[in-house]
Each structure stands twice: as structure tokens, then as C-alpha cells.
Specification:
heterodimer; A: mainly alpha; two-stranded antiparallel sheet; B: mainly alpha
Chain lengths: ~290, ~280
Amino acid sequence: MATQHSRIAARFMIAPAVLLLFIWMIVPLAMTLYFSFLNYNLLSPGALTWAGFDNYYYFLTDRAFFTALANTLILVVGVLIITVLGGIALALLLDQPMWGQGIVRVLMISPFFVMPTVSALVWKNMLMNPVNGMFAHIARGLGLQPYDFLAQAPLVSIIAMVAWQWLPFATLILLTALQSLDSEQQEAAEMDGASRTSRFIYLTLPHLTRSITVVILIQTIFLLSVFAEIFVTTNGGPGIATTTITYLVYVQSLLNYDVGGGAAGGIVAVILANIVAFFAMRMIGKNLDA
Amino acid sequence: MARKVTQSAKTLNTGLAWAMGLLMFFPILWIILMSFHSEADSITTPFEMLTSRWSLDTYAEVQNQNNYGKYFFNSVVISVGSTLLALLIAIPAAWAMAFVPGKRTKDLLMWMLSTKMMPAVGVLVPMYLIFRDYGLLDTRIGLVGVMTLINLPIVVWMLYTYFKEIPGEILEAARMDGATVGSEILYILTPMAVPGIASTMLLNVILAWNEAFWTLQLTSSDAAPLTQFIASFSAPQGLFYAKLSAASTMAIAPILILGWFSQKQLVRGLTFGAVK
């Protein structure tokens, strides 16, 4: 058992981390909350006046907010569907016996290590560009008209880019889970005459449930704050077609210099993220002792 | 035992898996190939590009004209600096939580994790103003600080899951033999924990290297890391395919290689130990 002495030592060892995180969590957030109730514009440096809930009112009734909320949801859900379904398929494929499995895995997970600004610009210029992009070359090769992806289907294009980055993550985690699957159980089921499909539905899928949940929750946290991909490709446009909540707050506060409005948007983003986080924390907490 | 697989099934799997792997890897492969050609050749058709002259000229150009080295240096300082700082703060905390767990240890860990779930935009405004008022905008030191705080929860968590796997009896035995807390850490815990610390470090360097929200918001040139440098190619006048390819290849190569070596740790770190 831990002695009194080591307990005190432990407190001292934990203190710096806790204190720093506490300050990091509380101070800026309190400032955001405070600013969100002020009329505060960086371009008009007069006295700051109390705004009440005006900033929230303007942010939440702005049509851009609803578009941004919808865009955020479409982006998150779209990427989740592609990565989870694709991830299951790729993980099942990679779990099969084959030659050069290690190399295939390395090829497959590589996109995850590419920094967001690189992947966004590569997709924008080298793949989706209607004149010099690879897709345009392929289209012309097939005798088709090249398609201007980022202008015609901007949100879908962003979803494709982000999905390319996160599909390896889903695949890797689901593959790790698949490899811990009890092969004897599978064999027993096979001997009892269970078909491939029913083995997948009744044995593999239940085994993967927890990992799928983890993939969904963790990706959601990161996907809610996708920024760089939009920043370097579409700048939220055309119009506000690819503006997400994160991007809208950035525009409001750092491009329009409206600190009060941006802060209100920030608080709204925090509340939305907290709804997701609530479920995530319960999930991860349940697995903590496992 | 592995089940018997027919040769044809294995061939089919191999073909399909390689096709998928190459498809996923293609964008990366393409910029690597493009980086060895000139600007003019890079915007011809794919076939013409591949058959045009191969050279390293573009790489030299990126270094000479754009001062690539500066951004690379900034990326290294920010990612490695913030990782070391985070480890310094997190190792004692994770040690204490793993070996002297209290009633509230679990709550504390969950709370740390919850700080990670706060969206960055929620604190964008005050962070920007604090950085502006204290002259931290576009400084490496400011960015190292932010990166340390952002990744601290993950570092504590990862270390905690690794430390928990070290048998506590060994420490107790040492304690009975009269080892102090200090020598316990130095001579027993550290050697056993080094693999875990190394993987934590690796993952954290990867995350910090690729972080593209705060680096884009809080730097412009002096302290700008590679994420910001690459973003500067998004301007229409900056559309140089070969140059973008060479700069991107150099920006992602170190992390790609580190990443290949840390696949297992990555799963563990990013799922907070929920999937091993």
C-alpha cells in the first residue's frame, strides 16, 4: 500500500500538470465567455460596452450560422460514413493472408501522416484542378469533360480530402481489433457450418463494435475542428458553401475583427463539442479499467 | 493455427489489397514523382512529365528561393520542444497516478482528457489577444507553449497506460530495500518505462508536426513551421506545382517515416488506450 509519504509526493508530482491544464482550460474560456457579452471590435477601440445576449442573438440568427451548422454536420457525418464503412472493408481485406502485407499496410496508413495543408493543396492542385489535375487528365483520356470539383461540388470535395486522411486511421484501428479476434471461435463456427456472412454478422461485427465506437467518437472530436483543409482550398467558399462553425468563428473574429461576435460563436462551438464529448467521455471512461 | 487458404484466394487478396494500398498512396507518390521535374514539365500530361528530364533542381530552388530550411527548423523546434516540455511535466504526473492511485485518479484522468475536447475556436479570440498583447505572436516560444498544453493530456494518458503495465511489486521491493522516490524513478522506473516514453514522444512529435490550427493562426513568418509554409502556396500566384511538390515531399517525409515505425503506438495513443 502507498504510504502517507508517497501520497504527499504524488500530489506534488501531479500538481504541475493539473495546474497548467486548469489554467489553460479556465482562463481563455472565461475570457471568451466575458468577451461574448461585450461590444468589442478591434477596429473601433472605444470603450467596451455591455452587449448582453446581442452577440449570441446575431450569431445564432445569422443565416450563415445555419449553413455552417449544416455544413459541419454534413462534413462530419459524410467523413464518418466513408471512413467507418471503408475502414471495415479495408481492415477485413488486410486481415486476409497475402504477400507483402506489411508494405500494403504502410502504403495504406501513409495519408494519415501527411500534414493537413499538404494534403489539401495536393488534392486541390494535383488531383482536382480542372486543367492540370490528375482527374482532369483521366477525364480527357476517357473523352469526358473535366469537372471543376472545388467549384461545382465544394463540400463533397472537402469531404473526400478529409476522408482520405482519416480512412487510414479507421482502417488501422479496426485492423488492430480484428487481429485480436479469437480465431478458434471462428473455426468452431465454420465447422458448425456457419456461412461467411453469418460469421461476419454474429462474430466479427460484435467484436468490432467497441472499436467502431472509438473510431466514431475520436474522429468526431477532430472532424468538428477541421480548419486547414478549408483554409487553404476554398476559404469557406464559394460563397459560404464550405464554411463550417470553426471557420465561421475564425472569419468573424480574425477577419471581421468582431471579438464579441467571434467569442459568442466560440462558446456555441464549445457547447456543440461538449454534447459530443459527453458521450465520448462516458464511453472511454467505461473502458478505462479494461 | 492459421486456416488453409487456397493459392488463388491468396493471389486475389494480394492483388486487391495492393491495388487499394497503391490507390491510397497515389497522391503522395505523385508529388514525390513530380518533385523531380521542372516547373514547366510538371503541368504537362502525366505521361510527358514522367518522361521529361529528372533532376533535383526544384529542391535546390525551394531552399534557395523560399528559405525552406528556416521553416523546417521551426517545425523541429516547435514539435520536439513542445514534446520534451510535455514529457517533463507529464512523466511525474503519470508516475504518481499509475503507482499511487487515489480515489480521484480516474476522475482526474477523465478531466484531463476533457480539456482535449474543447474546440480550439472556443479559445481562439482570447489566445490571439493574449499572444498579441504579450508579444508572443509569431514567436517559437509562444507556439511551443501552446503545443505543450494541447498535447499534455494525450502525453499523460499514454504514459499512464504504459506505466500501469509495469508491475508495482518491483517498486515496492525497491522501496523496502530503502530506495528513495528519486532513485526509484531513476534506476527502476526509467529503464522499464523507456519504450513507453519513446512511443509517447514519437506520437507527440507527429501530432505537433502536423498541427495546423494554432500554427496557422499564431505564426506568419519568423516562427512559421512547415504547415504555414505550405499554406503559403495556396495563393494563386504561388501555384508552382513542382515547387509545391518538392516542399511537400520534404515536409512530410520525416513524419511519414516516423509514422511507419509507430503504427502500434499510434493506435494506442490516439484511442487513449481503449484499443491496443
